Amino acid sequence: MSKISMKNLFRGSLRTKQTVVGIISFILFVSVISFVAYQVTENSVVVNANGKEEEYSTHANTVGDLLKEQGIAIKKYDKVTPSLNTEIVDGLTIDWEQAKEVTISVDGSQSKVWTTEKKVKNILAEADIDVTKHDKVSHALDSEVGKTGQIDIQKAFQLTLVDGKEERQVWSTSTTVANFLKQQGIQLNEFDRVENKMEKKIAPGDKIKVVRVEKVTDVVEEPVDFAVETKSDSSLPKGTKKVVTQGQKGKVARTFEVTKENGRVVDKRLKSEEVIQQPKTKVVAVGNKVITAAVSRGSKPSASSSASSNAGGKEFYVTATAYTANCAGCSGVTATGIALKNGMKVIAVDPKVIPLGSKVWVEGYGNAIAGDKGGAIKGNKIDVFIGSKKQAKNWGRKKVRVKILK
Asked: Does the keyword Transmembrane helix belong to this entry (predicted)?
């Protein structure tokens, strides 16, 4: 081969290499320009995921595209701000809050909710559950649920508390009677009692009754009646009584244990007694002397008898009325035991003026025996016995002269 051919061949090969190098250089240039242009046109975005921030550079068009591009799966109840359809711009901040499941138990009835709220009160508001100041909630309303993911609520209800004499309406949650009293600050003393069973669960409308029991010692001084002793006395007319010794009541101190319920006495028991003063026995003499008299009923004194009647003894004037044995409730027997229906003349007297058993002359009546007495016969008064009601009525009331014969 000639030198000219070799030279031309070499030059052609060299031109080919230069062309390839140029093409590759152009491609590299374009790639670098494109890469730089791609990098320059990326948007810088901050994603705040549950309080943790991450910065991303992206060509994604929307918030949803970006999160999908980063492998972040958004669930139904998650909260993304701004919305998933928001267009990406440089410097955009995206807040993503993951929802978590919370169990809410109301008086044992459970429900589950998904929420992005953290505070108890916000979760309950979102679940449309109202709580009052009387309800019992497992967490403070301003606190966070935390890892437990459960809120327990006991709804309060009204019932009646009777504490001694005081009755009032109170709020409580479902619990036992014992715990309820503890919640209400009710202190039971030694003898107090609760009329409800302590282990019983309370319910709306219940009445819890506390009976306040008090036991006190009461000392009472009381009189003691005296005894009455009777003695037979032959010097007194039969049936006549005379007090020999006046009686006097004694005194005893009795100690009682008094039980009160809500201030009212329900029991009183004698514990002991002590005699402070002994009673003094009353002694009464009862006459047993029998007096007989032979005075004819209705007889009028003769002149000689009248004269002898006026012969001696105490003489004075009295007011005289009449009585009869034929009345309702009358026994027909005098205080000295004389049977009036035997025809004897008898007068009722005041024993302090005319001694019982005395023989007495009465003006207009004759000789009689002082054998009776009466509650209305006091002082210078006598009551003459007349068998007929009509005659007794006719006697009326008059002033007469009497003379004690014996």
From this structure: yes
Contact between 116 and 77 under an 8 Å Cβ cutoff? The reply is: yes
pLDDT digits (tens, 9 = 90+) for 6-39: 555 555 555 666 666 667 766 675 555 554 444 4
Q: How far apart are CA 174 and CA 155, in angstroms?
A: 8
Per DSSP, 312 falls in state S
> What type of residue is 82?
P
> What is the phi/psi pair of residue 265, to 5°?
-70, 125
The DSSP element (H or E) to which 244 belongs, if any, is strand 241-245
Tell me the CATH architecture of domain 215-287.
Answer: Single Sheet (2.20)
Looking at CATH, the fold of the domain delimited by 291-404 is given as: Barwin-like endoglucanases (2.40.40)
10 Å Cβ neighbour count for 232?
9
Pick the closest to residue 350 from 324, 318, 327 (CA basis): 318
364 vs 377: CA distance, rounded Å: 19
Sign of CA dihedral 299, 302, 304, 309: positive
Residues 249-291: tens digit of each pLDDT = 999 999 999 999 999 999 999 999 899 999 999 998 888 876 5
Domain ranges of the chain: 43-97, 100-154, 157-211, 215-287, 291-404
